[in-house]
Write a structure and sequence with these properties.
Chain lengths: 314, 297, 334
């Protein structure tokens, strides 16, 4: 297919960034003040053997660039280190938790789109009239609303009082999971909605003002047809772009939400690791999250190129 | 303009007396023209006032425990109820206001200054400096903001100072991008060329001529950044990584109240409302500011 | 078509913008009617107001637009839609923005057909091919599935014209159809329009700021200034013997190949603010013939000669000059 060179080129362009994120991840761990090995292990586990093991693994007794190369070398082999707390490799742990997070992300994305499309449309079509003003007013409240609070409120309202959804957990099989993850996904979707809807609204307003929409009306087309064929296509492209831009927020929200709703995913793992000072996990997860963002960005670019015929592949 | 020729005005001939009405511009009052700005400012003034004066006027010491009156709902004595240690929620909320506003302030100021400066330099000079800065931005942007902050705070340890360090390390990129973008456009302007021809130092050109123009979008952004940072601080405190007890902070208060969600819902809910309110105030102000600073079309 | 006292006012925060303020004219069957003026004089808005393509919350349109026995401004939306594209079509200025960039060209042409006529997809496509050939697009069969950005500017405008002609409209509104194109292409497109007009027998309202185009293509022309028509006549008459100082000024500001020694004379001043237009005759601040009467009341557009309307109180002075064969511009004394 003629898109492969495009994808290949994008991948090549990403290499500096990929290297960069390994550097950042590497450096983040080195932020630990004092003796990293000691701090990492904590007083209880700071046996000489453990300290030596850490020093060897991280190469702490050697100069910094060498440490980095060791780190990088391990990475290439898929070795993200071993957890202090669990007796498993970081990679193994991450692998177990990925499905839940991915599912949550997907779910949240779907709900976001379901929320933002109608609201964005409604606001743009009724610019400055009542529906638009109401929707824009909700932005104000939504922008500063911390997702953890929103999650709690939703739990209070829908789980506790109305018993519609479970308070937490993941569920065991797919249908059960859909039910369990509804509130978490909804929380993410709602907390992102202000930004997404506002961007979509502005994009749609610009599109509606475009000459080709005017032309479509001049052709005598029914308003609905004008909307569907001429406006929505462009709107969809904007939606994809907007989602892509905000993917960082989306993924970041999963961390908070997973912890509120006790969903056993990467975010939950991260906070657990932080509270138990399980630094290899924290380091590994930071890297994984960055890779996730980059992967989604690439996906967005490809989807965009599929939707917009103007994108050239050279 | 007139077809073919430019609008070079030439003296009118003949007894031309124009009685074009002198435009007495009756502009609408500020509160009609830009309600967001006015309303936002009022709310901010209210909030800041409450935070500064409130703690002086509040009925109870925010840390004072009253184990006889724990977990009470809103009553005359305690307008917003009490928490699990009998502390008056209203007093704690007012106190927390100071803390949260302070968080917002510091989390915005450092990145604002650093980011704008770097963006300025990158946009103005271009070349290697620009490439380096852009690369760094690309890399930092690849991490979800919250995750990166979490990781840094995890390493440095909980506490406000570490939060400021973490935010300072990460948040500057937004400002840098904005200012750089504006600078790239602005440096092509003719008045810059003119200044260079006169022989002004770069520093002078940047500081006096370019900066006022390129900084406005950054200022507008700082408003929403303020809101987001308060939410960030609250989130971190909620998870125990930010403000440490017993210092009251809205996020921390929500976390305290979480256990009692089903029975005493107000402990967790009210502090959250405070965050939302601050968010509304600054968003309004930011929108109003954006409108006011936009060049008239 | 007959337009009676068309007014389009926009309500804006700074006041009411009277973009079109009492415009009336008639277009006969088969003729090309030109609407000429500077940028901002209201000619484009007039054009769009005829089909009510102006967004009507900020705008308020009043007056009458009579076409085929009905007042377009009074029609319900559904009826108006049957007129648009089918009986009256429009060609826009910039073909790159007028065409939807993500829809294939053939589909955009077929769209009009399928909206107004009861045709199958295949029939619509066939007709689209036909139309593309009619407007002079080479190898239509190969290009029908291309996207707009794959065409050059002139070809794109031909597509727009093809769309306009799809349902054989009786009237074509062309809003600066060649402004965005190269001069050589302009010529081609204009000739195309004229040729099509003759073969299909439709009327054209041609909006432009370029008097040269008017000279080449229009039978009759109206000159607009600040939202009103200031002069209206057959093209030859208007260009040879204008009876309004603004028209005279426009003509004078054009370079004339034959009279190389003459200086270019731009019209002094700038177009007026349409929120607070000048009192009386709107041209008076820039008019070399201005007198007290001009400032007091807006002169009406009236007939000053057979088939010649002018809104100037002193039109005869201009007529005298023309009769005397003087080609020197009125204006600054040199």
């Amino acid at each position: 297919m003629n898109r492969l060179p495009y994808v290949g080129k994008r991948l090549l362009q990403m290499i500096p960034v990929l290297i960069g994120i390994t550097i950042v991840t590497f450096l983040v761990v080195r932020l630990i003040p004092g003796n990293p090995a000691l701090v990492m292990l904590g007083p209880k586990k700071a046996t000489p053997e453990n300290i030596a093991a850490i020093n060897h693994h991280l190469g702490l007794d050697r100069p910094l660039p060498v440490q980095y190369l060791v780190f990088l070398g391990n990475l290439v082999h898929g070795d993200l280190g071993s957890s202090f707390f669990f007796q498993e490799s970081v990679l193994q742990l991450v692998w177990e938790k990925v499905p839940a997070t991915l599912f949550l992300l997907l779910y949240a994305t779907v709900l976001s789109v379901l929320l933002m499309l109608p609201m964005g449309l409604l606001a743009a079509l009724n610019k400055d009239r009542l529906p638009d003003q109401v929707i824009r007013a909700t932005f104000l409240f939504g922008l500063g609303m911390p997702s953890f609070w929103l999650g709690l409120v939703l739990i209070l309202a829908l789980s506790v009082n109305l018993h519609l959804f479970p308070v937490s957990g993941y569920g065991t099989n797919p249908p059960d999971q859909i039910w369990h993850l509804f509130l978490p996904a909804l929380t993410i979707a709602i907390s992102l909605a202000p930004i997404l809807v506002r961007s979509l609204r502005n994009s749609l307003i610009d599109t509606l003002r475009l000459d080709h929409v005017l032309m479509a009306r001049a052709k005598g087309l029914r308003e609905r047809r004008v909307l569907v064929r001429h406006v929505m296509r462009n709107a969809l492209i904007s939606t994809v772009t907007i989602l892509g831009i905000n993917i960082g927020f989306l993924i970041g929200s999963t961390v908070v939400i997973e912890n509120i709703f006790a969903v056993p995913g990467l975010g939950y793992l991260m906070l657990t690791a932080i509270s138990t000072r399980d630094y290899p996990i924290v380091q590994g997860l930071t890297l994984i999250f960055a890779l996730l963002v980059i992967a989604v960005n690439l996906l967005t670019d490809i989807t965009y190129s599929l939707l917009d015929p103007r994108v050239t592949y050279d | 303009m007139t077809s073919a020729a430019g609008a070079a005005p030439q003296p009118l001939a003949g007894p031309a007396r124009s009685s074009e009405a002198t435009p007495i511009r009756r502009r609408l009052p500020l509160w009609r023209r830009n309600p967001s700005l006015v309303l936002g400012s009022l709310l901010i003034a209210l909030i800041v006032g409450a935070s500064l004066i409130g703690p002086l006027l509040m009925p109870y010491d925010p840390d004072a425990q009253d184990l006889l009156h724990t977990l009470q709902g809103p009553t005359v004595n305690h307008l917003l109820g009490t928490d699990s240690l009998g502390r008056d929620i209203l007093s704690r909320m007012l106190s927390a206001g100071r803390v949260d506003l302070q968080i917002g302030f510091f989390c915005v100021s450092f990145p604002f200054v650093i980011g704008s400066l770097l963006g300025c330099l990158a946009g103005y000079y271009g070349g290697l400096l620009d490439t380096i800065i852009m690369r760094v931005i690309d890399i930092v942007v690849a991490f979800p903001f919250f995750v990166l902050i979490l990781a840094i705070v995890a390493m440095l340890g909980p506490g406000l100072v570490n939060l400021y360090i973490a935010v300072g390390l990460v948040s500057w990129i937004s400002y840098a991008r904005i200012v750089r973008g504006e600078m790239l456009v602005a440096r092509q302007s003719e008045f810059v060329l003119a200044a260079k021809v006169i022989g002004y130092h770069d520093a002078r050109i940047i500081a006096r001529h370019l900066l006022p123009n390129v900084i406005t979008p950054a200022i507008v952004f700082s408003m929403s950044d303020f809101v987001l940072d308060i939410a960030l601080g609250a989130s971190l405190s909620f998870f125990g990584l930010g403000v440490q007890p017993p210092t009251p902070e809205w996020g921390l208060m929500v976390s305290d109240g979480r256990v009692f969600l089903t029975t005493n819902w107000w402990i967790a809910t009210f502090p959250g409302l405070a965050i939302v309110l601050v968010g509304v105030a600054f968003s309004l102000f930011g929108d109003g500011l954006a409108d006011a600073l936009r060049p008239p079309s | 078509m007959r337009v009676e006292d068309l007014r389009t006012h926009f309500v804006t925060p700074s006041g009411v913008v009277r973009a079109v303020d009492g415009v009336s004219f008639e277009v006969a069957a088969g003729e090309t009617f030109g609407l000429v003026g500077e940028s901002g004089c209201g000619k484009s808005v007039t054009c769009r107001s005829l089909l009510r393509l102006v967004p009507e919350p900020p705008a308020a349109i009043s007056g009458r637009v009579l076409f085929e026995g009905r007042d377009l401004l009074a029609l319900p939306r559904s009826a108006l839609r049957t007129v648009r594209g089918r009986r009256i079509a429009m060609v826009f200025q910039d073909p790159m923005t007028a065409l939807n960039p993500v829809i294939r060209v053939g589909d955009q042409i077929a769209e009009v057909l399928r909206e107004h006529q009861d045709v199958t997809r295949r029939q619509a496509r066939a007709r689209a091919l036909e139309l593309m050939g009619l407007v002079g697009i080479p190898a239509p069969r190969e290009r029908i599935d291309d996207y707009p950005h794959q065409f050059s500017g002139g070809m794109r405008q031909r597509v727009v014209i093809a769309i306009a002609l799809a349902c054989n409209p009786r009237l074509l509104l062309a809003d600066e159809p060649t402004t965005a194109l190269d001069v050589t292409i302009q010529d081609q497109i204009l000739k195309l329009l004229l040729r099509l007009q003759q073969t299909l027998g439709m009327s054209i309202v041609l909006v432009t700021h370029d008097l040269a185009i008017v000279a080449q293509t229009c039978h009759r022309v109206a000159v607009m200034y600040a939202g009103t028509i200031v002069e209206q006549a057959a093209t030859d008459t208007l260009l040879a013997a204008p009876r309004h100082p603004y028209t005279r000024g426009l003509l004078d500001s054009l370079p004339n190949v034959r009279e190389r020694s003459r200086y270019l004379q731009p019209i002094p001043g700038a177009p007026p603010d349409l929120v607070r237009p000048p009192s009386g005759c709107r041209f008076h601040p820039r008019c070399p013939l201005v007198a007290d009467a001009c400032v007091r009341e807006q002169p009406p557009l009236r007939q000053v000669a057979p088939d010649h309307l002018s809104a100037c109180l002193y039109h005869d002075r201009l007529a005298e000059r023309a009769a005397a064969g003087s080609s020197s511009p009125i204006g600054v004394q040199r």
